[in-house]
Structure formats: C-alpha cells, structure tokens
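Exercise (ungraded).
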Amino acid sequence: MEPAVFLVTALADVKKDSFGTKLHELLDQAIPVRIIFANLNFVERVNFDQLLATLIVGHEQSVSVASLYDIFCHDDGVPLGATALTRVAHAGLATQRHTHQDGRYYVRYLQNDQLLEESHYSADGHLFYQNFYTDNQLVQAVYYGRQARPETISNFQAGALKETLLLNADGALLYRFLQTERPVQRLFNMDNTSNLQLTSLEAAQPQPPRSKRARAEKRNTLTVGNAPELSFDVMDYVHAGHFDGIYDFYRYALQRLDYRHQRLYINVEHNVALSTALPNQLIFNY
Amino acid sequence: MRAILSGVHPKKGKQSLELELIDVPFAVENLAMIFMEKNALTSLCIPIHRRVRNNMVRLTIDAQKFTFEQPGQSEFSWEMYFTFNVEDQHYLLQVESEYVSDRHQLTLDSYFQFNSDAQDHALFDIHTQQTRTDFAINSINLTQDGLTVTGYSSINGEPLVNQTLFLENHATQTVYQYSDTTDLLRGIFSITVPVDNLTENGPFNVYIEYDFGQQHVRQRVILARPLAGQRVSQVQSGGQVVRISKTFNNGIAVETVPPVPLSAKVAAVGRKAGRVKNVVHRLNQKVNTRYMKWLFKKGHRPFDATTIIFESFGGRQVSDSPLAIYQMFKKLYPGFRFIWSVERETVPYCKANDIPYIVRRTTMWVRTMEKAQYWISNARFPAWVKKPKYLTYVQTWHGTPLKKLGLDIENVTMPGTNTAAYHRNFVQEANRWDALISPNDYSTQIFRSAFGFKNQILKVGYPRNDELINSTADDITAIKQKLNIPLDKKVVMYAPTYRDNQFAEKGKYTFELPFSLDDFQQRFGEDTVLILRMHYLISNALDVSAYGDFVYDLSSYPNISELYLVSDLLITDYSSVFFDYAYLQRPILFYPYDYHLYKDELRGFYLDYEKDLPGKIAQNEPDLLNGVAEYLQQPDMSNDPKFQKFYERFCAINDGLASLKVVNYVVHQIETQH
C-alpha cells in the first residue's frame, strides 16, 4: 500500500475518533504516515503535538509531521513591513515565570497590572511562541516552532483570529490568510443513512420521512443550511497568483508534496469542498 | 430538486452515466459527482463537463478506479452525490435510482452492478476477489430444442470467443461438448445443447470453456439467483423427463428421469388437492386473525393466581431459554401457574411430556394471554397481540446475534413489508418488552441499536446454556446412551445454516452434502461418528441410510444442547450455534463452502468472519478433513489464545445461573406488585 498523508486543518480534526482509528489501521500495517499540519492558528501546534504523541505510542518512527512552513520555507517572498512584528521593550517591566509539570514554562512581562507579552519556552529553553497583548487582549501570536526565527505571525481582533502570515526561512512574507465570514447557503437532499453529511450544519440535519406520503414529498424538498461560513482568503506573495479560497490553497500545498502517489486522508466534513478542488483523486476520509 | 440516475451505457471499457435533473437551475457552475464508498468512507469526485440537454448531464467513469487496497475489503459500495454551485449557494443532491442493472463482469474475478438502496438512492457496487472458477450465466432453460444457456459475451468490453459448453458426468466420466454459439442480442451469447441424445441419466455438471485475450479459460457454470422463472423440466419424445437443478454451491446439474408411472401421476393429483387445502387454510387464518384482533381489544382483568405464559419460537416448540426458565420455576415456585402458548402441532409433545398448554389463536388463548401477569418468550409476538397494562413481558431472545437485526438492516427485502415498516414494527414491539435478556456486552450493544430498545436489559447469560455449563460427565454418558451413540467413539456434529437457494420447490430435489460422506467415513469412521443437524427440509431430502452407525441424522431432536454436550467437535458455517457451543471450550471448525457467494451477505454480519471466529476456516474439502483430524486431537480449547479471546468476549457469564437470575427477577416483580 502507498504511504499515507493526513491533512489536518484544525485541532478538532485530531480529536475525532475516526482520526485515531484510521491512523492506527495504517500504522498496524507498518505504512508510513505523514501528517500535514495546516491549521492556520499555529500556536495550536503545541496542543496538536501533545495529542498526537498520545495517539502514536510505539509508532513514533512511522509518523512525520510537516507544517505549511516546512513545505514552503524555501520559496521566495516579499520583505516583511517594519511594524509587522510587535516588539516589547523588556526593560523596566515586571516578570513572572510559571513552569508546567513537564518542564515547559512561560514568562510574562507586565507593566503594572497590564499584561504585555507572554513568551512560551520548551523545557530545554527553546522559544516556542510569543503572545502580545494590548489592554490585556491577545493581539498577536508569533510562532517560532523549532526555528530560531518566526515561522508565522497571527493577528487577532477582540481575541479572534483575523489573519495569519506565513514566512519563509529568511523571514520574508509568503502568504497572508485573511479570515472572512460570509453567508453561505447549503441546500441538500439526503437521508439520515447517507454517508456524506454536512455535519457542521447540525440544525439542518435531514430527518427520515415517517410515512410513505412524506417520503414522496421529501424528494422535491431540499434541506437548507444558512449558517454564515468562516473561511480564509489567501493572498499570494510568491507568484502574485490567485487562489480560489483556502481549499484551493490546500490543493496547492498537497500538490507540492506530490499527493497523487500517496493515500490522502481528510476530515469528511471538508469532503465536498476539498474533493471538488481535487477532482479524480481518491480521498480517504476520517 | 432531484438528480436521478437514468442510464448506464458501456463505452470502450468505461461506463457512461446519465443523470436526469429535475428542478435544477440553468445557470449552475462546478458540476461534479462525488462518489462515497460506504464501508471505507472513501470518496472520488468526478467533474462533469458535459451537459447533453438542459435537464440531462453525462459523465464517464472507469470502474477499475473504484476499487482500492483495503485490508479485509473486497466489496465496494459507492453512494453518489451530485454537487453544483449557484453563486453563494452550494447544492448537494444524493442521486436517486430505482434501477438495478445486471452484473457486469469487470475482470475474470470481479464484477459490478448498479443498484438501489432502501431509500431508492443509487448505489454502484463492485465485487472483487470473486472466484475465478465460476462463470455466472444469465439464464438456463429447457425447451423443445434442448438446454439453452445464455451469458455475456464480453468481459468489460473485451470479447469472449469460442465458447464451448460441457456436460460432464463425474461418475461415468462421460463428457458431451457443444460450441454452436449464436448471438441472442448484442453482447449476449446463447448455446443450445440438444438433450434428446443423452445416453445416461446423469447428473451432468455444466462447464464452459472460452478464449479471453491470450487466455484459455475453463469455468464451472453457475446461476447466482434462484431458478424461479426458468423452465426447469422438459418431457422428451421417449417420455423421459430432463430436469435442471442447482447444486449446493449454485452449480447446475442436468439429469434425465424415466417416464412418470401412473401411480405417481395419481399422487400428483393428491398434491394438487393439498395445494387447494393450503389456500383454504390461509383464508381461514386471515379470518381468524381478524377475530383474534377483535378479542384482544376487549377489556380483561388479571387472574387472581399469578399466571406466567411461556412461548418459544412462536409456539412451534417447547424449548430454548423459556423452557430452562420454566423448569427452574417448576422446581422453586411450583405454586405459580404456568402455561405454554403453543401451535396445534406442538400439542402431542406437550401431552406426552405433561406440559400445561393453551393452543394459539383460540378464544381461550386470547383470554389466558390477556389475564396472565407475565409473558416469557424468545421471539416477537404479532403486533395485534395486545399487552395489558398490568403485564410484565420478559423477552429472552434466541441467540447471540451474528446476522444484522432490526434497525441495523439497511435494506429489508422480505415479502409483505418494506424497510420503514419493518423498522417501525421492530421498535414498537421491542419497547413492549419490560426486560430483555442479554448473554454478553456485545449483544447488549446490538440489542440497543438494532431494536431501539430503551428498557431494562438483564445481562445474566442465556438460560438455555445453563445446561451446557452444569452438566457432568455422567449426564453426557446418559445422553449418549439415550441416542445409541457408542461410548468409545468420538462425535463430530455438522450444523450448517439453511440457505434459501437450496430448494426451488419444497421436496423436489435431493440435497447434496458439501463434502463426501464416503471420504469422511473412510478417514474417521473407525473411531468417530457424525451427527447431522440440518434444517428439517434438508433433513427430509437427505438419505444417509447407507452409512448405518456412522451418520446420525438428529435434525429433529428436540434439545440441541444435548447434542452439543455429546459432540467433541462442531463443524458449522454462518450459523450462530457456535456462540453456544463455545461454552464447552471444545473445538469449532468453520466450513463456509460457498463463502464467495455468501460474501455479500457477510456485510450484513456483526462480526468480521475472517478475523473474529474462534476456530479455523476450511476453504475446501481436503482442508475440512485435515481440520477435523487436527481438532480431534485437541479436545480442549482452553489453552488456545484465539479461542480464549472469543470465550472471554462472548461466554464470560458462565456461572450456569442464568435461569435462576431470571426467575429471581420475575419473583421480585411479583413480590413488589402484591
């Protein structure tokens, strides 16, 4: 069997039962698995690593993780603006340090009662990420990962993620992911036994018709889901090209990994959007 | 808004699918079809570029791309979803279809079929890893001209040539061969074999040979569906009759029988009269049911004395867990009143064994059922049997489930009902049960999902299995003596599942065992005997008189537990008997001789047939005999890790006190209600 690639776009993906089940099916057959961590909130990478570690005990050698930074870090980008990175002068600030049980720790920088910065370190003193605050609200998170330089910068408004900037190995800007919210209508006609469910629209889940007449009527009835959809627009600083939304970008990222010769696993909730971006591709869902 | 699969056409080794769209807007974008494989949850999106007319679209698929490597999976069932956009509106319509295509051979060992599920949605089913030794024909008929066989003349677009049909008599080694092939329709060949000149009675088995690409192929001719609708007998000029029948593994047997004597003709008139009697009986039943319904609707008051009604398999038997509970009640609480609800045919048995009974479908039965305080049954009562408010209904059920049940059956194909009605009736009936007995956690979980059951589950083990756990060596000796089984011989029991396709018409065909009794006797006859436990229809058609004290046909013996107790080895296939037999921790050998034909149905099983069974699987006759030899040397399976894993999962409740626990439950109910 060909090697497998799992696309993870959110922490919730890894928490699904079926993620662990499918992963173990492969690992038990000694099939190498690569996981693409394409979550745009990079700070969640720490939680992801912890969750994954509990899932792959005994199979650590068969699993590798690649982030979007790993895939694109050698591409050429545009220089980052001078104000893109928040800087806090530490002189004269009060500091507090808290150490977790596993040795990880963070240092807080405070000006009186105002939290300005929180820097998170691994047990060996390696800077993982920095959170910056204004009026005690998170405004920017800079993720370093295993590099000594920033990989991504995420900007927040009122505590919510607004944009993520993906940098290359030289600190130049490659892609900007802008979070958007727009009303999207989904219309579908399916039974409750159908496998392709739009599970994010729980309120719009179809119900089985109770009588023969209801069954006949249902055929012309569409169930409508009207939830506003959170998505990302992608600004491309590498080719000045245009991506038709985040799923088109995922397609491009997978293409860079030559996904056609690998067994691709995605969250079934993204199936409709992603499989139309990847026509004629066999997709395994979790 | 709907998308309907309206046509499938083969095109240069690929398939062209046509969809009819109803109420779909004109200005749509990004048309595509998403196929979703139900078992592995795998999808494939095929963009649609071609819109034939306004309401018709067409796409081409390559069936070969719809199979993939997945351990344990050889059947692929794809749902279809039609998707498109209109600006910010995304549409996803599950494709409908009521069309069931014929099977289309994809390779020598795979085929596909377009199907329709219970909700009339389209399915694209691909069956792989089929046997390469079988050739499935379209039809087989006897006409004045002879035996006519039709079949597809290509495999996925590549033609079969030089088809030759062989009729072979294995006993005499006689072979007839015919190769006059004609095209019945484009793509379907037809061969007619003149049968007037068959010089032997047969039976002849039918084989086919043909050229396919560079290969010369020889295969056994099979008919995958029943013979219904085919013309299976033809009187020849000499008065003898030629007949075709199906063998146990779907093969075709042709035989000639001498002219029918007058006495048989007279007997046939008698059978016809019997059929008329049956029609009258069915009419009577209908009238009776209406009367029963009316009686049940009348108000009743409970008996003063606590009365418990027992029923087993709808009154056809006095057996199983209700019997074990009844016997425990008789020992411990003989002061209560016990009555068995039985069919009329069971009355002689009750009389002979001093069992109090009431005959079903009588006025007295309705009165007794409605005035009793407890029902203990192992199967469902009809919906029209009204359960009074003061009554407690204990359902013992009749086995650890192997085949899917109730709500877990996605597509119900039983006559007289549809999936929705069947599911609804199951849930309604199940929730009349106040308590349901479960033998293990596995069953509990299934009962909850399959029956939609929300009441009390008593996980106490099956009362009928107490006997297996509590019996001693002396008890076993006594049973052997009763059955006339020599005490110095080992006992092998063969208990296969009854297959619907074994009888096209009741009593018409002679049943063939799927292994040779001669070979079996030759190898093990010296120190072993064989017990056969078959369906009664098969038992009637089986003649084992030539095997004297080697084969014991105990198909109609009332207590199967006693047969388990005397057996040193069980051979079975898909029957759930092995869940009970496993309590004895003795070897079980699985012989699914028609596994490749049964595989489709195995998807309807709760267990993984190849992984979860507690014994070896014999694929063919030599395997079977070697397996028997091996297992007879290993009478105790308590040290076999795979067996033990099974035992711990299914037989963990092995204290032999299940009947007592059920009796205690009922007695507690009686005490709290008084």
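Further reading is listed at the end of the chapter. For now, observe: Chain B has five domains: 2-127, 134-257, 261-293, 298-461, 466-502+511-650. The longest helix of chain B spans residues 262-297.
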